Amino acid sequence: MLHRIQPQMKNQAQPNNQTQVQVKANPNGESMNQLTQMSSCTERAFTVLRNSDLFAALPELSLRKIAAMMIEKNYPAGTTLFRSGENSTGNLSLIAEGAVSISVESHEQKETVLATLAKGEIFGEMSFLDEAPHSATVKTVFATRVFILTKEDARRVLKEFPVLLNSLLVEMVRRLRQCNRKVVGISYRPMQERVASAMVGLVEDRGVRQREGGSLRVYIRNRPTQQFLAEMAGTTRESVSRTLAIWGREGWLKTEGRNFVLFEEDRLRQMAA
Ligand code: CMP
Which of these three, 164, 185, 206, is where a domain ends? Predict the structure, then answer.
């Protein structure tokens, strides 16, 4: 089984919380502490893979094989992992915890957030596939933990498990659809519709539906800031604040700690449509 602990990655921001490697080695060259850390890292990677739409189609043994190749990294909130136009290592990253924003900058230096990606989602797949520089800037929104597959391992994995190519394609189509919706939203819609469109995007990205007392609720955990929502919606923070207040009064949505709770998903969808 192949285990690696924290090699230095070119073009990647350095994490704040790297897995510690113990120094004292046993006769096989690996200390018990090191072995325990390796196996628990693999176990964590396995859990994330199993819960990721992209990898869920694979049987347990295959997932364990992939998990053993993964490298775990932690980054604080606000860390730029790479910038649009930067050369890529070709590595694939799978989010285990937290979220990243995907953004591009216009010529006037205005930043537009294209998407937020959360637990179970991957990034870096575009430059992995076409070997071109990164298409967007990736920045952590919260403290974020990722599992990385190096370019070489990712190639091996796709060769051994070609069903993943299909899942990857479906995921890329989903992102394209979301982007299309956003382009239309930004150009023509009034304020509330834009914010609704951004909110529906969040629901699709990481909404969790729960039936409570006969009614359906959607939870968006680790909700983004109003500024972030404003960037997603192509409007101002003040407009987002006003819209959320209106929806709060109407009983469509409430803010609960670090979460949004949506009570009227259908109405938001109608508004965003
Ligand atoms: P890559 O081009 O290697 O680096 C930037 C990453 O951002 C890209 O791979 C994708 O993983 C991700 N990305 C780029 N555009 C979008 C988008 N429209 N929606 C979601 N993710 C994106």
Answer: 185
pLDDT bin (cut points 50, 70, 90) of residue 32 is low
Whether the CB of 135 sits within 6 Å of ligand 1: yes
DSSP assignment of 49-93: HHT-TTTTTS-HHHHHHHHTT-EEEEE-TT-EEE-TT------EE
Ligand 1 centroid to residue 269 C-alpha, Å: 25
The CA-atom distances, in angstroms, between 179 and each of 103, 193, 259, 270 are: 12, 15, 24, 18
How far lies 6's CA from each of 9, 22, 117, 122, in Å? Answer: 8, 13, 23, 19
- Distance from the CA of 124 to the center of ligand 1, in angstroms? 6
Both tokens assigned to 134: 């990164």
Q: Is the CB of 81 under 6 A from ligand 1?
A: no
Tell me the per-residue pLDDT of 119-175, one tens digit each, with 9 for 90 and over. 999 999 999 999 999 999 999 988 999 999 999 999 999 999 999 999 999 999 999
Rounded CA separation 160/117 (Å): 26
Residue partners of 14: CB distance under 8 A and separation at least 6: none
* Structural domains counted in the chain: 2
Q: Is 11 exposed, middle or buried (0-12, 13-18, 19+ CB in 10 A)?
A: middle
pTM of the model: 0.67
Please tell me the distance between residue 149's alpha carbon and the centre of ligand 1 in angstroms: 16
The verdict on 176 and 198 lying in the same domain is no
Q: How far is CA 5 from CA 11, 18, 22, 35, in A?
A: 18, 9, 11, 11
